[in-house]
């Protein structure tokens, strides 16, 4: 059996290890292998993703912002349009870096390279693989976000000292999307199904109060948008960079933590089902 329907493993069942250990404490070897592969073959693709949010900021934050002027933030303060969309682009950069690495790259490794099959034939367990791959995606998302945060600081778009907490916030965003992205990808069986990811990400990017306040939508639509993980991420980062901080940001943190926990659980179980059971 090929195991592409998720009900059978991608290789014949063997008595690889007694009881099949879930975690060998060696996720760093997965990270190191991924780092070597990226450095030797994929570095240009990774670096190109750094510039995407910068181009959006220049075209919309500076260009369109010159026409819009100021907008009203969540706490009622008036801020420049560029300062309004910059944290949203920051959260999106973290999401994109994490999702691209934990979906398309992981899909290829599962369905074509059969890389995880080889890893799990060693002392590594599914938790090692899951943590290692999610860490790689986290590093990519964090790299995009840190580069964009530097740009924001240079052009004066961090309006509060709370922005210092923007880095751990975007790390949480990247971790949440990477975890869930890898878990979802483990169910994908074809490139056509993988297109669903892009189909979901594009409208989420456009509609998550990224470029205009949530209040422009009708109330029923607002409820739907508030359930989106990117909206939760944007509101968390925007609150910190603009200084509009309240106890409400804890709900955004809890949402993302729950999302990360769900993704880790699904990913670990799927890797075990595909390759060990």
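Q: What amino acid sequence fits the structure above?
A:
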């Amino acid at each position: 059996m090929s195991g592409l329907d998720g009900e059978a493993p991608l290789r014949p069942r063997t008595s690889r290890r007694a009881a099949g250990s879930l975690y060998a404490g060696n996720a760093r070897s997965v990270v190191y292998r991924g780092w070597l592969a990226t450095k030797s073959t994929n570095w240009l693709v990774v670096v190109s993703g750094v510039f995407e949010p910068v181009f959006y900021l220049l075209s919309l934050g500076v260009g369109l912002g010159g026409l819009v002027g100021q907008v009203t933030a969540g706490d009622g303060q008036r801020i420049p349009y560029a300062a309004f969309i910059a944290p949203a682009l920051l959260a999106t950069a973290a999401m994109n870096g994490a999702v691209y690495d934990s979906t398309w790259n992981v899909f290829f490794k599962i369905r074509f390279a059969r890389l995880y099959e080889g890893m799990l034939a060693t002392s590594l367990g599914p938790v090692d693989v899951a943590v290692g791959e999610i860490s790689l995606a986290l590093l990519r998302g964090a790299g995009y976000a840190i580069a964009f945060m530097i740009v924001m600081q240079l052009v004066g778009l961090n309006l509060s000292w709370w922005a210092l907490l923007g880095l751990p916030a975007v790390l949480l965003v990247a971790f949440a999307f990477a975890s869930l992205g890898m878990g979802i990808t483990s169910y994908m069986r074809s490139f056509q199904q993988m297109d669903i990811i892009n189909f979901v990400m594009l409208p989420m990017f456009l509609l998550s109060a990224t470029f205009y306040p949530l209040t422009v939508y009708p109330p029923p639509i607002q409820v739907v948008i508030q359930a989106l993980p990117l909206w939760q991420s944007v509101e968390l980062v925007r609150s910190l960079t603009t200084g509009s901080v309240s106890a409400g940001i804890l709900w955004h943190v809890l949402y993302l933590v729950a999302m990360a926990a769900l993704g880790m659980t699904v990913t670990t179980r799927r890797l075990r089902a595909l390759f060990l059971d």
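Q: And what stands out in the fold?
A: The CA atoms of residues 73 and 213 lie 8 Å apart.
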